[in-house]
């Protein structure tokens, strides 16, 4: 957000007993709260060496937020001072009482004495210090007041003090009726160092220009770094409307209103505020002051560029393209290469919605490096890496490209892009099925400290990158059966990114997906079906896929097949290769369940070819496991065992617990089927090895509470123990099987039902 212009001043007015100095050379006016601060500074100078080092340090840390922040009630100011130095708080209160209950000449004498702070060879306050500038502003503002304004200021001071006295009397009466221990809490330090609370802003009256600058910069910083600490959208808009009522040409207030409207996805208000922001830049002449005659044109082309970005964000691609063409035309007329590079980046984003072409992006990266725009160049590299990851490029080449962009980040201290790069690495490793590497990258980002300076009490790095990484982390824990840990991560996400924040949809989708998987594992298909609507609202493709999975589990094969065929055509059209492979695997499973085993083979081979072409190693391993299951059904278990050894290692190393259990269960099935042609001794060894694998599979299924698979394993184990003549173990498995069979709906338990 641009800096506040020197030519902006608020209209002089009198509201709520606050006198506004009608002085265009002074950007502050005297208020009762600021007089209380002046008394505090005066008493601080008088105390001198009587104050201890710790007390002085606390008071110095307290002064800056008090000088910059809005006016506050005297009771809260006294509490703040008491936290640092109780003796000084009493002195300030007595001094204010004498002034408020005295005569007008006492206030006059007080301001006359303030000038003495700068006198002498070693003055108490330096003129150029923060405190010195504040004192000089207040003295100048007071000296410019007319007699009637001085009298109104004195009356306002009396009201300010009397209001505090009345509140103290009410508090004493309340204490008589309340347990004193309940009122013993101290005001936390973050109340002053942290962001402004809604009630403070609402009760503080009109803000001076400096207070408005502080308020706007603080809220803008909070919206970027920690949206939860910023004012609620409605409250922030109310305060911005209040600021704009006093000064409609305050451009920065319009821009913050634009950012606030984006939080709630308000298209009309955000467009309205953005246009007003650039209109005010031109009207106030701020751009022309800093950029000469080019200022007006600069505002116009960047206004068109920002409007294009806004339309693109809301999915209005046709309007975005028209605005972008306007920005390109004005930038070309002005020979503005920097603006043209930003336009080229957005042009790639718009073209990407129509067709995949990296020519524009490569050209943008080269030009950005040529014109010294590292931020834009790095974003281009990140987009190239993302596009090539979806195109199936090798992971080592992508990581080399990200390493080059990381050099740019660290060289120019681009902390936001460092976070984006690590989050992108996490997503790429997840795409390629390397969960261990994804977990390592996620932990790297979470353990990093932000390079950006933020206020005390503000959560660092509350950005989209952290939301993405935490969502991946929650899903990784859920896949390994650590549902309690996943719930804790999601709980943290809900606190860090509330439902009304702009990145909340990320954790909402992952939360729904994790709940869906748990319901499916537990056999509660009606619960899973109820979650489909929520997933569809957040991601239509995922929602349709999950609906087909539920229909398949409920044995509604024809409906599931129709849905999967439609989804397959759509995903092939938009080139979502990962989902295409998952849909093909689900279609193959439908063919198995319909006893069309030979028809499933071409589908699986198509999925395997796609997985290998696009370097999706984990999906390729999962497809090989499905092929092994097909070979088992077709009566060639020896061949199935051979290809299992090729695919099972990536699954055990990086797979979800459920997939590990299914893989070990499949190995046991193949071992039993192969043992039919063995010698008696070798057959016994094969069956005992199968039992061990079934024990491992049972452990995996128990970890994710997958009762249907547990029931199948127990049934299979009981049959094997019976074959080996181990009656006691057989009876134990049979008893556990019966317990689960009574809990679950009876669909029949065939010896070989499905891979999953």
Automatic annotation (TrEMBL):
Q: Which InterPro entries match?
A: Apc5 (IPR037679), Apc5_dom (IPR026000), Apc5_N (IPR048968), TPR-like_helical_dom_sf (IPR011990), TPR_rpt (IPR019734)
- Location of the Anaphase-promoting complex subunit domain: 254-353
Q: Which pathway does it serve? A: Protein modification; protein ubiquitination
The record, for SMART domains, names: TPR
Subcellular location, principal: cytoplasm
Provide this UniProt record's keywords sorted from A to Z: Cell cycle, Cell division, Cytoplasm, Cytoskeleton, Mitosis, Nucleus, Phosphoprotein, Repeat, TPR repeat, Ubl conjugation pathway
GO terms under cellular component: anaphase-promoting complex; spindle
Residues in domain Anaphase-promoting complex subunit 5 N-terminal? Answer: 30-167
| Location in the cell | Cytoplasm, Cytoskeleton, Spindle; Nucleus
One record GO biological process: positive regulation of mitotic metaphase/anaphase transition
PANTHER family, per the entry: ANAPHASE-PROMOTING COMPLEX SUBUNIT 5
The family line of this record is: Belongs to the APC5 family.
Described purpose of this protein according to its UniProt entry: Component of the anaphase promoting complex/cyclosome (APC/C), a cell cycle-regulated E3 ubiquitin ligase that controls progression through mitosis and the G1 phase of the cell cycle. The APC/C complex acts by mediating ubiquitination and subsequent degradation of target proteins: it mainly mediates the formation of 'Lys-11'-linked polyubiquitin chains and, to a lower extent, the formation of 'Lys-48'- and 'Lys-63'-linked polyubiquitin chains. The APC/C complex catalyzes assembly of branched 'Lys-11'-/'Lys-48'-linked branched ubiquitin chains on target proteins.
Q: What is this protein called?
A: Anaphase-promoting complex subunit 5
Species assigned in the record: Promerops cafer (Cape sugarbird)
Its ancestry begins with: Eukaryota, Metazoa, Chordata, Craniata, Vertebrata
